[in-house]
Amino acid sequence: MKLGTIKLKNNLILSPLLNVSTAPYRQFCRTFHPIGLVCVPMIYTKRLISNPNSIIHELLKIEEESPISVQLIGNNEKALKRAINFLESYKFDVLDINAGCPSNRAIKAKEGGYLLKDLKKLESLLKIALKYSSRPVSLKTRIGFENSNNNFEFRRIINDSGLEFLTLHARTVKDRFDNSTLDLDAFKKFKEKISIPVVGNGDIFDAKSAKHFLDHADVNGLMIGRGTMGNPEIFLQVHEYLTRGKEIAFKNNKDKCKSNIEIYEQIIDKFLEDVKLNHSHEEFKFVELKRNSIWLTKNIENSTIIRRELSKTKNLNHLKETIQNCLKSN
Ligand SMILES: Cc1cc2nc3c(=O)[nH]c(=O)nc-3n(C[C@H](O)[C@H](O)[C@H](O)COP(=O)(O)O)c2cc1C
């Protein structure tokens, strides 16, 4: 399938997820089913140019992950231009601009979701991205800042921009995440006036919610974020259901959880071969494995107790011992 000029194996996309969709995570998700496009979490443009060493570990080995998108967040044209220039030596397929992040940090810095309140700035940043990036440019945003009315100018900017595609989260910036329901009607109205391909995003936690989104809003692709955490099979489930109507349940148990953690560990080890990080490999592995082991216990017997034990671990050996003890077969 194609998103603009970008050829993808399928229309499923792994969201950019700060501190989550790391290189091992992206690869882990791809182990269970091909994913059309994966995304590196947002990179702050100012930080990238002022202190690249604090960021470049996010870009290690991305050339092995094609097709992959790299996302920038910022509100300064000069910094954006320099960041794009810096990224030129890396091999990736799409440059994404973040105009949706609702965090207090982003709003205070007048970037991410704040850009929906400053459309002139958004347009100016998009012009820079389109002018200086040698890769196709996409935009990830939401249906509005406080509400989705009066977004004529917003849609004009999107339609006139030369963007390859748009990823739209079916919430306003003010609605942030879980404290509100998805507004698929507003999404649909917004999407109907957009002349470039649109990827739908928000609350896809299983195959049925993916189908519901697709049926309701007729999008060109689906992006999944939180639904991947603890369910690495979600892309397989969604793909099978959308293409063949086949329902595959994610049946987790101790053995499966253990095997998934082992796969994750092997992926981390492979990733760490001949890479240099700012901190130790052991620390990297501990943080990655702990976070994901906790998620991977989803729905297994005694998962609450096991999660509590895993979260108490302080180092890699302790974590591995706890995994062994908690996931022993009965
Ligand atoms: C932990 C976390 C980190 C996120 N990091 C980013 C990010 O770096 N860039 C971005 O555009 N969106 C980010 N998001 C938003 C997601 O990409 C996605 O738009 C949102 O979670 C809605 O999709 P979902 O319901 O499938 O999770 C993040 C969300 C979460 C929960």
Short description:
With 330 residues, this protein is of the alpha/beta class.
Give a verbal description of the structure.
With 330 residues, the chain is an alpha/beta fold. It folds into 2 domains: 2-244, TIM Barrel (Alpha-Beta Barrel), CATH 3.20.20; 254-326, no CATH class. The chain is 43% helix and 14% strand. It contains 13 helices and 10 strands. It has helices at 23-32, 45-50, 77-87, 104-108, 119-132, 152-160, 184-192, 207-217, 234-244, 254-272, 281-296, 303-311, 316-326; strands at 2-3, 6-7, 12-14, 37-44, 68-73, 94-99, 137-142, 165-169, 198-201, 221-224. The strands form 2 sheets. The chain has an 8-stranded parallel beta barrel with strand order 3-4-5-6-7-8-9-10. A two-stranded antiparallel sheet has the order 1-2. Strand 3, helix 1 and strand 4 form a beta-alpha-beta unit. Helix 3 runs parallel beside helix 5 (119-132), helix 8 (207-217) packs across helix 9 (234-244) and helix 10 (254-272) runs antiparallel to helix 11 (281-296). The longest helix is centred in the last third of the chain and has 19 residues, at 254-272. The protein is globular and about 60 Å long. It starts with a strand and ends with a helix. The mean pLDDT is 95. Bound molecules: flavin mononucleotide (FMN). Flavin mononucleotide binds next to strand 4. Flavin mononucleotide (FMN) binds at residues 15-18, 20, 41-42, 71, 98, 100-101, 140, 169, 201-204, 224-227.
